[in-house]
User: Fold these one by one.
Assistant:
Number 1:
Amino acid sequence: MAKKILVIEDETNQAILISETLEKHGYEVCSVSNGEDGLKKLEDTSFDLVVVDIRMPKMNGLETLANILGQRKNLPVIIYTSYPQYKTDFMSWAADAFIVKSSTGLEELVSKVKELISA
Amino acid sequence: MPDREKILTLVLAGGKGERLYPLTRDRAKPSVPFGGTYRIIDFTLSNAINSGLRKIYVLIQYKSYSLQRHIREGWNIFSRELGEFVDVVPAQMRIGTDWYLGTADSVFQNIYFLNQEKPDMVLILSGDHVYKMDYRRIIEFHKKNNADLTVSVFEVPIKEAKRFGVVEINQNNEIQKFEEKPETPKPSPNNPDVSLISMGIYLFNTETLIRRIVEDAKKPESTHDFGKDVIPSTIGKDRVFAFPFIDENKKETKYWRDIGTIEAYYEANMDLVNVEPVLNLYDSQWPIRTFQEQLPPVKTVFSFGERTGMILDSIVGGGCIISGGKVIRSVLSPWVRINSYADVSESILLNNVNIGRYCKIRKTIIDKNVSVPQGTIIGYDPVEDKKRFFVSETGIAVIPKDYQW
């Protein structure tokens, strides 16, 4: 069975791009547009990994990460953001990986996902 | 100095102190009374204050009512407007619903909460130990070595080291190995007769702390303890150094005690009544503060032959009345009353203990609010004592709090 990934990303284009890329590598992907919806989704579906943006409406990615750690601390979480300055944020250190959206970002994301969970 | 960078101090005060039973029947180990007027945690908190550290969280859980009250009453002395605080943080602040699983878990559960302070370094202390230390020295040492983590270490004879976390270092004080309670502790490279043990004092760069704590939280096989799990996991990955303890007690031998057992508790209290105690409570350069209510002066009355109120080789808290009885080599907390013809020796009496007439009490610890009836004899017949009370291996009887005859 394909491993399941939850993508929490508020920009639709980005969400589609990430989802399609991960699906191409054999993962099953579900995407939601903010942290609150992400946490709700995690309550009723089980996932193998989460990719989360930082700047989002309702609940940002770092707070989402804190909540995920509280409830499912073994679930790997990758932060995928356009803002490298968050790399020095206290909460970012709690993520399994911090990847900056750039020309090579998606490649990095895929290889990190493969490292954490094989398809 | 510590204020230039932001240093957050976490005092782990969840210790159950099971081997201190029955003193820990109703209270966590850090709030066990010590030395007449102190609680064990007062030493760590005083060290922090004397070192200029003013941002302190005390992480609590087990039987914490007495500890919370003590900190509220005795340590509410900071200016929050200047960013200073001693705050009590119970388990389950922001993340999760479990009781803390281990010492590391208590920090993990408060990660988001600590995030508000965004410290550069986090100093992790235990609320279980009695010692005097200027934490500025370990902070300087940590920075000089450009360390990610610095562990304060204490020298003990090799055969005693088994009970502790034992640290192996190279010539540069870099930690090569950290093993909790090893079968055969390795000697220090500087002295073959001693081993270096961890004092439960860890200075982390915040990033290292967070990364290692989260990694540890995700390991299902981990017991989530700093000594057993987190510190060993940093060896080989991070720059980890051992800081040789510098004692502010200024005596010939360095003083650091894990008051872990009734015997250790008894001995550490009895040390204080010596002519030259190892632990000096009278050093105005390194004051140990505590909570004390307003107390009337100590009083001794009667001087008629056998009915003489007297105190010899002892320390006595305020509000005590020694009325026609004898107190020798003992530690008395406030509000103790000794009645006529009673004879108390080599004992520790906590607050509101009343010793009736003609009692003979020796080598006994009596917890708070106990009234010992006239003519009671404790400490002279171990067989008889064991029928009624907890008696330690070395024959120290312990009367629990609120005991009724």
Number 2:
Amino acid sequence: MFHSKIFVTLKKSILDPQGKAVEQGIHALGFESVGNVRIGKYIEMDIETSSRDEAERMTREISDKLLANLVMESYTFTTEPFEELTAQP
Amino acid sequence: MTNVKFGVIVFPGSNCDHDAHYVAETIMGQETRLIWHKEGSIGDVNVVILPGGFSYGDYLRCGAIARFSPVMKDVVRFAQNGGMVIGICNGFQVLTEAGLLPGVLLKNRSLLFICKYLHLRVENANTRFTGMSKKGEVLEIPIAHGEGNYFTDQETLKRLEENQQVVFRYCDRAGNVTDEANPNGSLNNIAGIVNETGNVLGMMPHPERAADPVLKHTDGKKIFQSMIQSVSSQFQFVESMVVERS
């Protein structure tokens, strides 16, 4: 079993008005030195396979076709093996 | 008179489906049916309407999940064979996610959901959706969206402009395309585009909300009239071919 964590973010070239609004909030909190706040999405999933290559290939395909819209977003991910029973908190 | 068959796709979360159905059937007098998203076929319709709303609660991204609905396979097939498809608001978002139209609709630059009447300039009156309008004509049609900020890469934008695929632009009352008249930050004030073959239109404004005379605004009717005119003239063309051959 593998566990993938996918981070989807707006491309650098795309204005992120939501991030800008949050940045204003951060400044209002008094953290004036904070900038370039960007909002993204975090998705995690379990993949039943014994092959890391297979798990990564599936994660990439799912991200390309569904999780991210590559016109405006890019993504990064990690895929790690895990045991179902011990991984539950 | 030729009867054009309209099909309105209903996704879970669509909320302008009945408005579109009402306008096509009651105002325009055409045969119209609602098509549940789980249906495998759109049947024998001539025009498919992807209505406004919040399909699948806008989960992940607007329109991202709707494009996997069973009926969308047949809608894509229909569009690729030259069938007329109009996506309104969320329908436009679904069309971009389905790859039938280029680009994407980002969050409005103001971050606000905007619901108001505004003006559109008809940039291309030589389409199957605008044949009853004149180039440069100003239509008053409302918008109602939070994600209508049209974006695409520069290369695609250039191609859209060169091919005259930009059909509607946000403008002021007099028809001037200005930044003040741009409600959401769309590139080049784009409010609606067609695909290269001209049979698929996506637009953020709601023509179905400006078609019933009771609502005082009826500019949206022109888009429905144009579609009916386009399909009817195709029928007549086919009929004339049949007559010629017999």
Number 3:
Amino acid sequence: MSEPLLKIENLHKRFGEIEVLKGVDLAMNKGEVVSIIGSSGSGKTTLLRCINMLEDYDDGIIAIDGETIGYRLDGGRRVRRREKEIALQRAMTGMAFQQFNLFPHMTALKNVMLGLTKVKGMDKSEAEALAERWLERVGLLDRRHHYPGQLSGGQQQRVAIARAIAMAPKLMLFDEVTSALDPELVNEVLNVVRGLADDGMTMLLVTHEMQFAHDVSSAVVFMHEGRIGEQGAPAEMFRQPKTERLADFLRNAKF
Amino acid sequence: MELQQFLSEVWIARNALIAGLGNTLAISALAIVAGTLLGILVGLAATYGHAALRVITRLYTDFLRGTPVFVLILACFYILSVIGVQLTAFQAGTFALALFCSSHVGEILRGALQAIPKGQVEAAKSIGLTFPQTFLHVLMPQALRQILPTWVNVATEIVKGSTLLSIIGVVELLLAVQQVIARNFMSLEFFFLAGFLYFLINFALERLGRYLERKVALPT
């Protein structure tokens, strides 16, 4: 049996007095698409941010391809890695944010190219070709010279996804990528995500789109109060929830 | 005719006036460039430095911004020599203006950097940029656009502040004009000329600022 691509063991995260993650275990194999659902405050987003080391975590292990993220174990003690190492580890995962977070002073093309030239060390023409390929993939090649301010929310999010994915991450993280969008713009983004799933991209997504989670995921994880309440195949999870909490949550969720 | 007499006096004094104007431009340019560069470091330290560094930069900016430029110039000229730093009046005065400039640039830069949404840094981090890269390619270009209008204000203050160097004997434009007046007693005309030249410098700075603003404005 091969090592899982993402392995999380006993993950704990505190914000001051409040413990947001109270021991999360999760494993994902290459090519899997896992959706995390759960009510707000259950720790979904925090979990994603820990994987990308946008938050330090207090205890436990996050490992990608066997490499512990953010910390290394030194004689049983957790030692935070150096910033430079962490920066490189962050590039192993791509992240798409709820608020897109495109760089407003760069065109769509430059947004995608920045990481390629500065982190991957590609030369300009190589980076440009790759960036154009991904912008084409998300249907925005004709908008490559537009600035974020000239794009709709859905277009911005697609550029942001292209920016993350162009870095060829081992794992793509999606943090409620459609929550900030007008309803009519949601589908264009979901279609891009669905396309990536079909390509076999390993993806972990936090979403409120239950139908989408049902359709696209190989597994669904329900988080509740900082723990994993239940996980399983989407069909079982949505049709026959084992716990009362998930049943409750699904009753109130929109499909 | 009085205008003709004024013009001939200007012609006679042309070398002194040009030298004074040149000094004013040199002092201003040096102080603005050095002060801006130093101010960027100050703003960076004030925003992202460790707690101790932030306290130090806080004291630095509060002290410098709370002190009249005039006092700073006198202090740099008289006190630095006492502690063994021998500067000419030109150097000491320019240094004082640069310090003053840095405290203002540092403060406006801090404001601009803090106003950049946190998501920008997170997005930069998530594609693997280190902090220096993030600062250079993501934060600074946004902050500089933000501070441009205020920065032009600071620059014009420095040009005006350069007149105070006349007190420590630097023959910049104002002192050059005063020396000319001492010879020909045409105080009204020559002070007007000085005022007009200062206006021209600052007007040019302001136009330059507007031009840059337009040039770097982001299309929406």
